[in-house]
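From the pipeline queue, job 12 of 40. The input is one protein chain; the requested action is below.

Action: predict structure.
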Amino acid sequence: MRLLKPPAKPIRLVVPLAPGGGGDLVARLMAQKITSLWVSLSSLKQTGGSTIIGTELVARSQPDGLHTRHGDGSHGINPSLYTLPSIR
């Protein structure tokens, strides 16, 4: 397996979950491991709106490959429960 060349800037990991919960713990551990193995990963807490606010932040970010979201089950459930913002 060949690793890709790391990007020049850190990757931003958006965590739309409450600090101190299980999802937050997993995101922190994942960020530490990825940083130690490959590339710097900065974690950004963006809670609220049942993860919709953080998800929208990533969806509206520049398509440069430097933004990602830590997911959980709400990502698949929210569209059936809420009217989501249109991303264009």
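Job complete. The helical segments are 22-37, 52-59, 74-81.
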